[in-house]
């Protein structure tokens, strides 16, 4: 087999076999296939696409390039949720303890943030002394004992994807649905859960800007999961405006705790409850939408989800007093209010501008090596559809010295006020099963 023949085959619209995909991936990881040939193949895939079988084969070959986590020794049903990334998306901090309180096991490997989207690990590190590096033994023991752990990846998961993703990033080949789906699912399948719920974000602040492409990606990922023996479903959810109010690591931890106390923003609560309800249905722990939703709500209202979050902090060495005392979390030195200079209805709170403003303040990374400031961020007080008067508070910028004025300008520019009444998008736009 020669790489050049397979590149030509794909360029001409052919279908690659499992053996051919294996040859390409193994060859690339081993260094026998150089970057220039792999780049050419990736570009051919961008133009010609891959069918379901090719996507599944690529996913498996990338998965097999590294370690897999075997959760089968854990007593109970191990579930996972994955978000394709958004602004203010702290859903995992609510969903993981809520799912655990509903009888599911959440053994979750999370990642750090890059670009304008945040990462769960960064948020958790805002909690003093919280350990995200758990040994496999501690990780498994914790899931057995309290049904949840959220930790950084220790195993060498899908190294082929890591190498390919870095190449895609610099060759203009990130945006191909089949490549994105295989990349995400290779890591999800390697993480060992039997039931996977994907939250595919759609809109200005998301990877997928429109509903059609988000639906295509969701369908591709669901097909890969189901073909490979995992019960997989996806929600398509709005990311035209930030989720909830808080954007920035410590601020998002506070908002997640407030949500677990039943006092969080409605959109974050709705999404968290829906994700857990779907997981309860997928796993068969509940048989009807009403029962699943009632069980999730109960776990929020009776404090059991909050209690799971407390246990997780304690098990992972963190200071659980943060739940009652937010002053123990990092706080920015300066707060600047952004107020409306006209009256009307909020037409837009552009998620991307808010995410970029948070990044300017230091809440996110431009490159993987960047240090972040856990204290800084933005609180968004006005949401799409709200009626506002001149002088009303739109947002509060929490900053230290870094780029404060630029960030304030960017936050101001994120808001668009209309004199017409605005009906906000639905939060949950579709479900793919
Ligand atoms: N996230 C991933 O993990 N892979 C992609 O290809 C795109 C987003």
Can you put this structure into words, describing what you see?
With 433 residues, this protein is of the alpha/beta class. The protein folds into 3 domains: 3-49, Transferase, Pyrimidine Nucleoside Phosphorylase, Chain A, domain 3, CATH 1.20.970; 78-323, Nucleoside phosphorylase/phosphoribosyltransferase catalytic domain (Pyrimidine Nucleoside Phosphorylase, Chain A, domain 2, 3-Layer(aba) Sandwich), CATH 3.40.1030.10; 331-418, Aldehyde Oxidoreductase, domain 3. The protein has 16 helices and 13 strands. It has helices spanning 3-11, 18-30, 35-48, 52-64, 91-101, 120-124, 136-146, 159-170, 177-190, 211-227, 249-260, 266-282, 289-301, 304-315, 351-361, 404-414, and strands at 78-83, 105-110, 148-152, 195-202, 231-238, 246-247, 334-339, 344-349, 377-380, 387-388, 393-399, 415-418, 428-432. It has a 6-stranded mixed β-sheet with strand order 3-2-1-4-5-13, with helices on both faces. A 4-stranded antiparallel β-sheet has the order 6-9-11-7, with helices on both faces. The chain has a 3-stranded antiparallel β-sheet with strand order 10-8-12. α5 (91-101) packs across α14 (304-315) and α12 crosses α13 (289-301). It is globular and about 70 Å long. The model has no long low-confidence stretch (mean pLDDT 96). The structure holds uracil.
